[in-house]
Amino acid sequence: KSQQFFFSPGATVSWNFIDPRRQPDINASSESLKRQKYLFTASARGLILSIQEAYYGVQQSQQLIDSYKKIYAINKRQLSILEAQKNIGMATVLDVEQTRSQLFSQLNQLVESTQFYVEQTADLAALLALPPGTLAIPSDMAVIQGSWPNPLDETIQLALAQREEIMANLAAAESSQWRGISLIRSYLPVFQLVGTGSLNYQNGFRNVSVDNDPELDYASRSNWSASAGIGFSWSIFDGGINAANAQSSYAESREFKAA
């Protein structure tokens, strides 16, 4: 009779210690991350600009409504004076009706301006992510905060240097350039350090007579083996696919720089 147990685990580890594509891939990913950061900053700046425009639009409408209210109050008093003058013969019906018509037109402008003001405050509330149905009404009137100290040329240069869209395009161009380099380098060999190890373990008994105790012939054996070496892999020909993709990446890089 026989009874045996075999256990043979093994492992292989490889490390590409010379990979021509590694650094270009890292650089391409780094530039792509920069581009995403610049685009996020540009989106945030665009939102802030929209909030500022909406805020000062609300302020402008509020000042316009205040002006309409003052003009309406003055013309309303003028109408009362003309009606009193008409009663004593110092004004004609035509004068009174013309003033009344002007007053009605001004009241209509005041109503329209108020409706537009409500729409603007609702838009401002939406930009501020306030709950639906909320109006964002400024608590203070707009006042001059100061003057811009830089001249026009310096202002333009400063804006160009800090324009996130330009920097995002430059980062995208660099990322495409590095991707092209990585694709070209895919034709170079990759050197590897390879290590393997295995364990052969066996225990049990075999060919033991039925009358004998198998424990007396029970045995276990183990054997370790390991090896290490250097190898390489080399994709010499792929039909020019990676070369064509690299040229496409270079062209994409030029487009980003020209944008």
**What is the global morphology?**
elongated
Write down the Rg: 42 Å
Counting H and I runs of at least 4 residues, what is the number of helices? 5
Tell me the span between the first and last alpha carbons.
83 Å
Assess the beta-strand content as a share of residues.
Answer: 15-25%
- Whole-number average pLDDT? 89
Can you walk through the features of this model?
It is a single chain. The chain is an alpha+beta fold. 58% of the residues lie in helices and 17% in strands. The longest helix is centred in the first third of the chain and has 66 residues, at 22-87. The protein is elongated. The chain starts with a strand and ends with a helix. The model has no long low-confidence stretch (mean pLDDT 89).
Summarize this, please?
By secondary structure, the protein is an alpha+beta fold.
Search tags:
259 residues, alpha+beta, 5 helices, 58% helix
Topology (elements, then pairings):
Blueprint: E1 3-7, E2 10-18, H1 22-87, H2 93-127, H3 152-161, H4 164-185, E3 190-205, E4 219-233, H5 241-258
Antiparallel strand pairs: 1-3, 2-3, 3-4
Helix pairs in contact: 1-2, 1-4, 4-5
